[in-house]
Write a structure and sequence with these properties.
The structure holds two protein chains of two kinds. Chain A is mainly beta. Chain A has no helices and nine strands. Chain A has strands at 9-13, 18-23, 31-38, 45-50, 55-56, 61-64, 70-75, 84-92, 104-109. Chain B has strands at 4-7, 10-13, 19-25, 32-38, 45-51, 57-58, 67-73, 76-81, 90-97, 104-106, 110-114. Classes of the chains: A mainly beta, B mainly beta.
Chain lengths: 110, 115
Amino acid sequence: DAKTTQPPSMDCAEGRAANLPCNHSTISGNEYVYWYRQIHSQGPQYIIHGLKNNETNEMASLIITEDRKSSTLILPHATLRDTAVYYCIVSLFTGNQFYFGTGTSLTVIP
Amino acid sequence: GAVVSQHPSRVICKSGTSVKIECRSLDFQATTMFWYRQFPKQSLMLMATSNEGSKATYEQGVEKDKFLINHASLTLSTLTVTSAHPEDSSFYICSVKQSNTGELFFGEGSRLTVL
């Protein structure tokens, strides 16, 4: 599975959009981009995933560049409860293993 | 509601004893489950892939004789930390992948403290 690179930490003001970038320059054509987040001492929580088209759900939006070498997770109106470590993972849809990188620690500031 | 349940959520044991952690898939049958370990302020590290009815597949560097995995049914996998030592103290998390959505569901995690 391809590796991902994320900034180690980010801050965001409460109520503003949080844009979390992820580089996955070695992604293969059939690998999906998945985003999870982990609040302290809990299991990771699924946020969103996509292949090449932009995706949106009730939690977030996922923007994938045309060359698929990077993506951005957007939390449109960050709240204090969005403070967490966000992980970007690339994996085959039918593949089994998810390998986690170091993630981005997002702090939402009041 | 929860899709994956882990038990116990916290366990404290003495050095040299064995500890069993259970992972249950509540919403669907899972031929494959995954076990992760997470040390403080670090990312999740995949330990092994648990396969129903067959041997688990361990990641490089993970001792299979120390971390025994049993996947006896389509909804239950267990991880047994044998002869635990303080360096085995960690947060252990299991997960299940839903085949039709590709989504990976995680348990709540089990925090092991070895004294």
